[in-house]
Fold:
Amino acid sequence: MIMPWVLFFATFGGLATIFVLHFESQGTWNRGYMELDAKFQQLQQKNSNVTLQLRRHIDEIGRKANSGYADLDAKYQQLQETHSNDTMQLRSDMNEVERKANIGLCEVRYEDYCFFLGATGKATMNMNAARWFCERNDAKLGNIYSSKHFDMLTNYYRPYVGTVLNGNTLVGIKTGMTFDPQTQVVHLSDGSRAPFIRWELGQPTIEPQYSFIVVGIHADEIKARDGYNNYREGETNFGALCQRRV
Structure:
C-alpha cells in the first residue's frame, strides 16, 4: 500500500516539472518571436533602403533623361537654325548669281550705256515692278537718245515679239522717260528734254494722267509703226527697258 504522502510528493513533483517546462517553453517562444520580429524589422529596413535606393536610381534616370532631352532639343534647334541660315545663304547666293548674270547682259550697247530687257511674257508689269527689276540689277529704267539708238533697240527686240512674248504682234516696253501733257514735252529720266521723239500713229494722248512713255514694238518690220505711247502710271505692260553705265 502506497502511503498518501508518497502520492502527494509524486503528484507535486510532476506538477512542478510541468510548470517548469511550461515556463521554459514560453520563454523559448518569446525569444523566437523577438528574433523573428527583429529579423522582420531588419528585412523591412533593408527593403525600405532598397526602395529608397531604387527611387533615387529612377529619379537619377529621369534627371539624365530630361537632361539628355534638353541637350537633344538644343542640338535640334541649333541644327534647324544652321539649316535655316544655310538655306538663306544659298538663296542669297543664287540671287547674287542671278543679279551678276543680269548685270553681265549687254543686249544693246549705245555710247556709254548697256541696255537690257526685263519681260514677263504677259502684260503684267506695272511701274513699280519695272523700277524694281532694273534697280535690283544695278540699273535704272532706260532712255532713248537718238534715232540710231531707237532703231538698234527695236531691231534687237523685234524677234521677241510674237515668240518669247506670248504670240503678240505688238508689245509695250516701259522706259524711264516721261511726258508733260500741258507742254507736250518728253523728258529723259534725269529731267532733261529728250533729244529724240517718235510717236506711234494717233499718239500722244493729251490728258493729265498720261505722263509715262512706253515704246511700242511691232512683230513686223514696218518701222514707221514703231514708236512712243504715253500712258497712265497704273497701266501694265510686257516689260521694262533697263540701262546701266558701262
